[in-house]
Amino acid sequence: MSEGRIIKALSGFYYVKVENGEVIQCRGRGVFRKRKITPLVGDFVEFEADSPDEGYIIEIKPRENELVRPPIANIDQAIIVNSAIQPDFSTTLLDRFLVLIEAKHIEPIIFISKMDLISPEKQKTIEAYRNDYERIGYKVELVSSKASGGVLPLKDYFSEGVTVFAGQSGVGKSSILNALKPSLLLKTAAISESLGRGKHTTRHVELVQVNNGLVADTPGFSALDFQEIEAEDLSDCFPEMRSRKGSCKFRGCMHHREPGCAVKEAVENGEISSYRYEHYLTFLEEIQSRKPRY
Known about the structure:
This protein has helices at residues 30-34, 91-103, 120-136, 147-151, 173-180, 239-242, 262-268, 274-288, and strands at 2-10, 13-17, 23-28, 44-51, 54-60, 66-67, 72-73, 77-83, 107-113, 139-142, 162-166, 207-210, 213-216. By secondary structure, it is α/β, with parallel strands linked by helices. The chain has three domains: 2-62, CATH 2.40.50.140; 67-216, Rossmann fold (3-Layer(aba) Sandwich), CATH 3.40.50; 231-288, Ribonucleotide Reductase Protein R1, domain 1 (Orthogonal Bundle), CATH 1.10.40. It has a six-stranded mixed β-sheet with strand order 10-9-8-11-13-12, covered by helices on one side. A five-stranded mixed barrel has the order 1-2-3-5-4. The chain has a two-stranded antiparallel sheet with strand order 6-7. The chain starts with a strand and ends in a 6-residue tail after the last helix. 35% of the residues are buried.
């Protein structure tokens, strides 16, 4: 019995990387299908090798977390790419991504791309937003669209662990990955002017080495609904609310209409950004009004 990590899944085959760096092509045992378990890229597994380069996956180790789109497990950090322009910077969209990533207990890092394409006035606005998010405790990097100057200093973020990229189409996820590792040659889809977003060009998930870390080369994370988040857990996905929930008058406070709410007080005092709180209320309503699943 050997152990390794799945670094690629393609056409029913799972490519497992072992400690010495070798990659063994494996199939999943039928027992997984019966138990309705699908091995995912990122899974730590035990396998039996029939030959030096082929084997069968016997067991999947417990997962720290997993995503549906892209289908990947045991992620350490997610880089959320939001562009300053084309498409325009949106705190609503950024907060939506942050909530989804926080809910999965993955560390988010914010990249704001295309900073060299905006006016000095807009740069000041973006800088103000950057300060807001850094005050919450997030790491925020402002990135130029010029690969060599803007992206290469970011390599330190890829020194260990598994990273996924998140963000809407056209914000420059593939361009950043290409600049970090030109051999990836990810197809950078031209932005469709009429739609204001890019076209998806990636087909399978694979973990590739960048610096000493592993990066999913499918810039995906396309599911943006809150189907897996319960209303009472939403405020835990906002760090500035999570840290105050013990100070509210009522246990289980939803930070909406309840009196003696520490979160609402922090909004009034300017300690929590009003737009973050408005987004919280919008997301809360979305979760509370969704249809039950049977």
